[in-house]
Amino acid sequence: MGRIAIRPAVAADLQAIGGLGASLVAEHHEFDPLRFLAAPTDIAARYAHFIGGKLDDAAAIILVAEQAGQVVGYTYASLEGFDFMALRGPAGAIQDLIVDEGSRRQGVGRALLEAVLSELAAKGAPRVVLSTAQRNVGAQALFEREGFRRTMIEMTRELDSVGR
Question: Residue 158 and residue 1: Cα distance in Å, rounded?
């Protein structure tokens, strides 16, 4: 385990971020294949393209965790306004936070989380919200240790079973 450096993402990081995003999609699909999308074969490139489009967005925060010269995690967050469907006022929203499987449980996720919270606070976010998969207990434990509380529970039902 080497020193963890957290820094803003740059275009040269997009391939690594795309790979991490692909693993995020695959992990969620494994949690619940009916709820979460299966990863198409080009998901890493699509993810990299999506995040690349956010690099110059003033409302977006994209940070990478680097260890021994390798990107081992990233987070993507944004400033959000009022959301009446979610019954929520302005907030920072953490969209993604993922650490490469081989680098987990070494403080990388915590370092990314602390850095993105600091950036969101500096941008004036009064609170931060995020969602995590029901089966992602490791992430939930991290978020709870860092002061997050449970406020919403998503429930899903497949409609092909209606009336059975």
Answer: 43
